[in-house]
Protein 1
Amino acid sequence: MTESDPLRDLTTPALILDEARMHRNIARMNARIAALGVALRPHLKTAKSVDVARLQLAGAGGRGTVSTLKEAEVMAAEGVRDLIYAVGVTPQKLARVAQLRAAGCDLTVVLDSLAQACAVIAASREGPCPIPALIEIDSDGHRSGLRPDDPALVAIGRQLHAEGLLRGIMTHAGESYRVVGADALAAFAEQERAAATAAAEALREAGLACGVVSVGSTPTAHAARDLSGVTEVRAGVYVFFDLVMAGLGVCTLDDIALSVLTTVIGHQKDRGWTLVDAGWMALSSDRGTAQQATDQGYGLVCDLDGRPLADLIVISANQEHGIIAPRPGAKTQGPDLPVGARLRILPNHACNTAAQHDAYAVITADGASPMAFWPRFRGW
Amino acid sequence: MTESDPLRDLTTPALILDEARMHRNIARMNARIAALGVALRPHLKTAKSVDVARLQLAGAGGRGTVSTLKEAEVMAAEGVRDLIYAVGVTPQKLARVAQLRAAGCDLTVVLDSLAQACAVIAASREGPCPIPALIEIDSDGHRSGLRPDDPALVAIGRQLHAEGLLRGIMTHAGESYRVVGADALAAFAEQERAAATAAAEALREAGLACGVVSVGSTPTAHAARDLSGVTEVRAGVYVFFDLVMAGLGVCTLDDIALSVLTTVIGHQKDRGWTLVDAGWMALSSDRGTAQQATDQGYGLVCDLDGRPLADLIVISANQEHGIIAPRPGAKTQGPDLPVGARLRILPNHACNTAAQHDAYAVITADGASPMAFWPRFRGW
């Protein structure tokens, strides 16, 4: 039996997870961060799956990162005891944070303003338990956070420290998604490290504790050459990888563990089109490779065994229709794909494509049949 | 009490449905199609909600359109008895179609190839009941379908007719989403009508019955001035409307019934940014207005009562972060939006944004409190 056999019977479109590739991706990140002498704190938002989280956390000391309180609640119910909620907290969300902490989950919040710090202090005084916080640092102009030399950093740090709520700082170099190649990404990782450690130093010079210095993104985690002064690295998409990461040189196409199974529904032969039953509802509308050297459209087309088919990409996506065609400049038209033929589409952005589905149909690492189905959760 | 009061207590991000606007949109389409003297067959894929479908179908004789068999199964379980599955059918899906038909739902499939017709004929002969089909016509080069003068049309028609399975033809002028203004859209509607009726005539001239002549998209449905020869119109996004439709002139901003409630989580004041807790996970990655005269980014920002705030749009979206800023060239920076403030974001594409959520939080037409929650379903 080949790995493709169970895929012939699934309802399409379906989200396929190659477990062996995922294990390899997890092992690679675990080894890499261990070699750098820091802790790994996997981001659980990519998979939103208890089954995947268990594998990620096993090699990471049980430390996790979440992007929603729903993720925190699901993981806490599974016994995860150490989480960072890595999106700036709102006052309205602090009651749920306190409930999770009161139930035994060491959940840390993130903030970058005095208004948030005051809300956290008030909730800690008035609620069932103290809520510790990390101050977010802006290392690359990507989105939120304070520059390391912003006087507000120490001002906020003092407020939190006085209440015993200051845990440290965190930063996310999201702009690393625009940087290609190992050397450029290593320089970006150093920029992220430098901003984080400068912020930690600014707090310490003011006499404030800064135990946690948390950095990370998948590209910088894989590229970093020295993480002196950093205590932990956060990364998420490394678990599956995707075409955006391959375009940056962080992984190869063979590392991408996620794909969307689809069936051919028709053709427009004079235009060179093959139509399939995976539109944006199954692939997402993410066009993350549009600005890269190789634009993969809405995804790269593979055969049922996961081998890319010449230069076929999904050039257009409606709700339940995808249009497959050779990429501009391709030398061949690709193989004949009759109605009913099945294909696998590699995603631009694993987090986004996975979010369109309720479960992973897993090609298990031990080749067991039938396939495993791992549920995903969602919501906030 | 104002309509915004119940919105202060919801967990954000959340999908908000303004029921009064939706009722107005449904009534407008019902009246318009009745005036044209044809039947309306609402597309249920936009809302994927039993509650919304009930309102759409009540004024449309119980006829519906679906884009997945999951939608057909959910609607059939609710007693809907007349459905078109408007995505080219694959041989693998015919067993589920037959099950639905055997259970009493008159579900019609769509196809545009001899291979599909043969599969439908085989399944009709061997399965529990005949499966009637519409032949899809390509009226504008958008995606699937046969040109009305393609000899394959009559060839396929003959095969189906001989088995008593030919119901007629259908077309969808999807390229109408690129045409702006009432006159241009009316011309496009005429192009759609002309292709559909030409195809029906080609079948009839060959002695084949063509009872159903089904056309439609929301823009052409609202713009059509004459539908002679057409028997029914399909439309979906009219029920909610969105920024893409407003950009085409099909609706105004005041007609858009869907929005995403979000909370301010921070600022980058030197860059003029306000950060909110609605990223692409809540808004979708749809950038459908990117090619329109007014690019709305990832959505247009409104206050809690749904009034647009000057020229504020979501300029960037990560998974759980949205960045709000004035659109390029805006004259004002917009109001002060402190941490914890709540906003509503109008979506580019209602189908896509709604698909990111599990339920509608409904501002009920009668102003009743608490809000109603209408579940959405998904999957295939």
Protein 2
Amino acid sequence: MTELQIEVPAVGSGGYTIRIGTGLLTSLLDRVSAAFAKARPFIVTDENLVDAGHLSRLCGERTIDHFVITPPGEVSKTMQTVTAILESMEAAFLGRDTVVVALGGGTVGDIAGFAAALFKRGVPVVQVPTTLLAQADSAVGGKTGVDSSLSKNAFGAFWHPAAVFIDVHTLETVKDRDYRAGLIESVKHAMIADADYFAYLESHLDAILRREHDVLAEVALKNCRIKGHVVEIDPTEQNMRRILNYGHTIGHAVETASEFELLHGEAIAIGLVGAGLIEVELGFGDAKRLDRVRALLKKIGVPVTLPRSMRPDRLIELIKRDKKAVDRWPRFVLIDDFGQIHKQGQEYALDVDKATIETVLARLYG
Amino acid sequence: MTELQIEVPAVGSGGYTIRIGTGLLTSLLDRVSAAFAKARPFIVTDENLVDAGHLSRLCGERTIDHFVITPPGEVSKTMQTVTAILESMEAAFLGRDTVVVALGGGTVGDIAGFAAALFKRGVPVVQVPTTLLAQADSAVGGKTGVDSSLSKNAFGAFWHPAAVFIDVHTLETVKDRDYRAGLIESVKHAMIADADYFAYLESHLDAILRREHDVLAEVALKNCRIKGHVVEIDPTEQNMRRILNYGHTIGHAVETASEFELLHGEAIAIGLVGAGLIEVELGFGDAKRLDRVRALLKKIGVPVTLPRSMRPDRLIELIKRDKKAVDRWPRFVLIDDFGQIHKQGQEYALDVDKATIETVLARLYG
């Protein structure tokens, strides 16, 4: 037998800028043209954004090739939608000199970023998140992907954006329920990274709910700093990035079990309370912390208990399918206090046995 | 407007070993288990390999989750097949601790490698190429992907194998036409990288066609050295790697225009003659070189002229859609002599105008 060793050099480091402001949409394509001199833009968006007038606001007088995801939302987050986008890019004669502009919420960003990663083995994507959830979370960090018929974000790629534009003006057209659910990733960020930020959310919640632009820009900045810091240290989720998964192991199972009756943020809200209950069970810190979390979530207006119709054995089954599971059981991210991850040696995720999770799920029915 | 800069660190360098020998298949899964201690293997293969007994040879007494691509060949190289593989991996309860084993020719390797790149945002793939084409080319280098309805390899990812096993014994069951077509990437390698290798192919062609194991192992080693060298220098096709595209710009168009009546190697054979005709047209080196190429290709038994039924305007249309095209026209890799790429400054690909290509296509009808 002959052996031959092939060396693969490191893929070069890079970076991108997040710009946060009001009314950025109208000048955005000019900025993209300036940054990618020879590139042709291709916009991916969804019906909600078209109806809210944001696609027109972005394009102005220009005619730009685009794809409108129909229907909007998680049901379209499939390989079939990605394939349709890719074929539509082919039909428009696009080449490697394409830059994808993802205009929309987290679903649009995940799908469009994934399509950009696959088209001609990868073209740049500019993320333009238009929801609180996307501005707080999904537009930064380079995770893209779609759901399988069995689990969320089962298929995807790491594909960092070439740039991110956050126009808080776009939040004005977000529906009330979506807006409230969108705040939950901000709560999660505060819980895992910054006790002062948690207090800020408590004290500024009314202004946030009134959608005051300056407070929204501040929230976006705080979120991007936290998310960006974690992503810089661990871009492909080897270890530290797992802390972003706080509340998501139970949360994702709840989201799938609800068959997307619950919004992502609503399911994660239940997941955050679930994480808190595990912490109480294991004696991590003060039980009053969970009271503050529940109070904030209730004031935001999201569920903090499991729907009675949701069977615990179904949730256990879905937790086994978690994409971070090894040997059919995932590990859980937990905190000792706001901003203090409970570490076990160098690990940010802990083994928690099935019996404990079953106990916690039973308590989550409220 | 507030700005925040996010730094993305370089993705770590790595490497993999190519092992070449006879009868490696039977011990391969033991080697994979040893290298990936906790991982669960998932085999992707096609009907041809099953019929030839190679899947049984690989699995032995074990029961391993697997996916059989049906029908075999380019027609299955679609997003739909990748989606079916991914869903089948989900249904088998596989997680991030999966290692995909790609047992088959170039199509299987491309599809399986692509599925591995996407499953849970990426799991390792072990390439086990079973055809000359795959052993010479596609198993090394990390290019994976599928075709669109309009062009070849339109969608994909760079995903380097974790290991490559070349068992020349598997070549015994390759059908004659496929075997002959499979030699063409070796001819291309010799043309772009090694004049002595071209002479070796001329002098050892009878032994190669008799499928003598020691000569086949030598051919595999020479091919992997050439391919591996280029890939090490340029893993994501920024510049030098383009030389591997020699003969492929016309070749891919011919392959698509034939609606896959022509095998990849057969189309590339025509593409190699096409590249030679461009070189003659531009006065690059000695015209006798093209005679040697034509003679070797004829002895191998592949076409060296375009089918009369293939319209030149259709080929021009497909060349415009080449995935390396910028502004709807690709550049061409050309040589001054065997092993000597014609460089223009630091560029390995040249601008050749449409009129020259039209002249060359007219001559390619023989």
